[in-house]
Amino acid sequence: MSAIAGILYCGGAPIERGLIESVTAAMASRGPDGRRHWSAGSVALGHGMLRATPESLEEHQPLMSRDGTLTLVWDGRLDNRDELRRGLIASGSEPRDNSDAELVLQSYAAWGEDCPARLLGDFAFAVWDATRNRLFCARDHMGARPFFYSRQKDFFAFASEEEALIRLPGISRRPSEEMIDVLLLEGIINLDASGSWLDDVSVLPPAGYMEVSASGAIRLQTYWRLAPADDRRYASDEACIEAFLDVFGKAVRCRLRSSGNVATMMSGGLDSAGIAAMTKRQLPHISGKEFHAYSAISDHPETCVESKCIRSLTVDLGDRAHVVAVPSFTGMLSVDDLVDVGWSRAHPIDNAIVLPAMMCLAAHRNGHRVMLHGVCGDLTMYVPNRYIAYHLLAGRWARSWSECSFASRNFTYLRGTPPVWLLLLNLWTGYAPGWMRAIRQHVREMRVRSLLRGSMINREPSRYRRMLDRVAAVTQARPLADLQQAHIHALLFPPGIRGGLEGYDRVGGRFGLELRDPWADKRVVEFFLRLPLQYKARNGWTKYLMRTGFVPDLAPEIRWRTGGEHLGWHFIRRLMDETRDSLSQILDEGLPTIEEYVDHRAVRAQYLDYRARPGDENQRHLYDILTLIRWVRRISRLGGRRTPELGPGG
Known about the structure:
Helices cover about 45% and strands about 15% of the residues. The protein is α+β, with helices and mostly antiparallel strands. The chain folds into three domains: about 5-165 and about 205-220, Glutamine Phosphoribosylpyrophosphate, subunit 1, domain 1 (4-Layer Sandwich); about 235-380 and about 495-560, Rossmann fold (3-Layer(aba) Sandwich), CATH 3.40.50.620; about 570-635, no CATH class. Strand 6 and strand 7 (about 135-140) form a beta hairpin.
């Protein structure tokens, strides 16, 4: 992870002094190893360096080609370096050094717009091509590295962080109404969350590239799509496990390429357990690396399944297992740390993932530059809750009934559901005719409309009509999709896999920490997409292949765990407890800031409910409102206009 930025004046005027520097300065935490800039006439590029790989230790950007016609800024990690180098040499190119940036610059010189499709890894980059008089920008297949841009009347600009762009004159600080609705309606309906949180800023999609001409004309293309293909067939369970361990091992090994020791964000779940197990398998073959784990455990670990699993996973690490106990916040982090992380730079994404942000803070303090995590595991190993419908449609009736019986005991989200009811639900999913689905869709839309009327969104008529149009778009009746198509939809429908990666990159960037997820590796995602259903879920167990693939590495209580306490809520509860006494003052001072987005009477009613019954549901809604207030006020102060500070604890 590094910071990249660029500005292109469309009328040919020279770049004003200090503009590109202001953008990279706003992303200083992403580039703690120094910022460098380049400009020529109407274009300027900037780079903030985080030296996270051995090859980056001698790297300097922006990077120019030998003839001076190409200039690159790169934020990424290449995972097919050897293959790429061989291809370049075969094409007549000779890389000047071994850095990722040099390989990418040479790749663009050799293959132009076909370059991104040849790259494997996590990346976002831009090249100023003086010969073609254009800016070429691209992003990796899954969206692990961010790329935000803004097209204004007289200029085009891009950056690794959306808020960095509002340091430029002419780019509005106005929040995105659509994304605020996503926040306020969470738990009611999942709206499209693919946009930027700022009105004037756009997002380059994963697997996208963009050409920007000197006049500012934009040509946006997709270089790769996640597409269905025939299921892979395996001679035996053992053969499938071997194939899984091979592809997942490659993904983990690529992400162990770092300039320091390896850290991981360790929960007691299967996704992080698999990463830990594979890391421990591979570290003996990598000299000079230590493995550190960062976790939150319960104050009473003996009664918490999550904490017991974490202890089992880290028992061999000794003092390299770093923990904070909650809700007391004893250990590696304090309540003061929590308040600072939660409120000093509030953002709707950051404040939804406070636990990961706190793990990043702890790892940063210990000098780590790279941390592994598994936020995308659920989506990569996705199986629908009604996966049994696919067995029914294939005529596997006995297997279907057997799965219903097992799922009622083993499937995390279906445990306790009577097998007969599961069978009926899956029969509906597989065989309900279109007219019945249309009726159900209409009932669902009416239910959502009713919930909207009781929500905290501002129901100003024109805004409410826009909201209803968005609701109708996502509640349309759809027939049962092919299993691979359903998996692709889960991976790509926002927030999807991209949303998890972008969120974790945001909080890692705050602390100069590069976050890497092996479950988001393109090869791993494609492997699980084409996996036969019997390996995705069996005997009611989701992630079946993962559970059976690490038998030598993981204790049975981890591999066959069906649920457990999620400790992330302790962070938000404690943050709200620390704010409780000043909550009324914060609302009094802050609600006018967001009145065009929320119904202040509904917010006040929610506050009274919270005071009377401070349960998780009321707390969560108010927490979102506090986050929105603090975020909107914070961005309104960036680059100029000031608003009064909130009261204590706000």
